[in-house]
Amino acid sequence: MSTPALKDWPLWEVFVRSKQGLEHKHCGSLHAADAAQALHMARDVYTRRQEGVSIWVVPSVAITASNPDDKGELFDPAADKIYRHPTFYEIPEEVGHM
Amino acid sequence: MNKAPNEYLLHLADNAVVLGQRVAEWCGHGPILEEDLALANVSLDLIGQARLLYQLVATRLGGDATEDSLAYFRDDTEFLNYTLLELPNHDALVGYAASDMDYATTIVRNFFYSALMVLLWDKLQSSTDADLAAIAAKSLKEARYHLHHSADWLVKFGDGTEESHQRAQAAVDHLHPYTEEFWTPSAQEEAAIANGTAPDVRALHQAWDALVADTLATATLKRPQTQGYVPEGKQARHSEHLSYLLGEMQSLARAHPGATW
Questions:
Q1: How far does the CA of residue B123 sit from the closest CA of chain A (Å)?
Q2: Cβ contact (<8 Å) for A45 and B148?
Q3: What percent of chain B shows pLDDT beyond 70?
Q4: What is the CA angle B122-B128-B133, rounded to 5?
Q5: pTM for the complete prediction?
Q6: CA distance A6 to A14
Q7: Which residue stretches of chain A are H helix?
Q8: Which of B12, B65, B146, B223 has the fewest C-beta atoms under 10 angstroms from its C-beta?
């Protein structure tokens, strides 16, 4: 097995779930030789102050991102469609917090 | 409640503080940012363990003893740490310069020591000294992480490039003989075994051997045959390196006795 040199280490995106949180939140990225090492490093870099109870690392290359230039056509059309927000309903008290 | 002999607690504390100080030398000099942070974490874990143990001894000694008096105002001839832990972060033949620090040496030392401490803290959890057992339970989790971290790197070095393999093997060859000290009980260890507050280290030898052999095999590294010289650091007979280390660690506290933040 040959380990790629430091400058060739792939980039990993780090997601951490906090004690209270239900979902993993993106908190940063780091370079590491492999997934196991990325997890270790994420633990040392991003959870030193008890920030998390669970960590995900994802190769940055696995993420397909939207193009900032497409912002207009992707997101602006939603701006004037307030009826898509469920704010016109009365929520019965029995339902409680939603 | 049984009490572990103070000298035995000091042996554990001195181990932790001396290695903590050595590992801290990487702070700001780590090979990459993530490792710099990782080693600072390891160092702070060790210093945290040392503090708990020194505080326990200070309480039991009473009088003027504090964690600081035990860490900063004892001399090298009173320290009871393994010789392995005071050696510099480079191999035997280079000068005493921070720029010569060798990551393989640091990793191999952390590996040998944390492989021992994972076994020892585990047994100490059931020490008849309840205070020591509580410290052991906390420290065990930290030692497991230190072992994981160092074993991971050792495999990467050994099974990495030609140079990383060669440097890892050199570090193993240099440091392995010093681990002989683990298996020869000192007077304070004998006393702790006798009153039931510590396990017999010799009983951990086989498990340690298996752990080390397994990781070295995965790392494609050779295990040197070790026999002959047994260091005596835990009996307060040290290499010349400890006094330099303590000189640096203790100078501030000694220049300004009783100073507070």
A1: 26
A2: no
A3: 97
A4: 40
A5: 0.87
A6: 19
A7: 35-46, 71-75
A8: B223
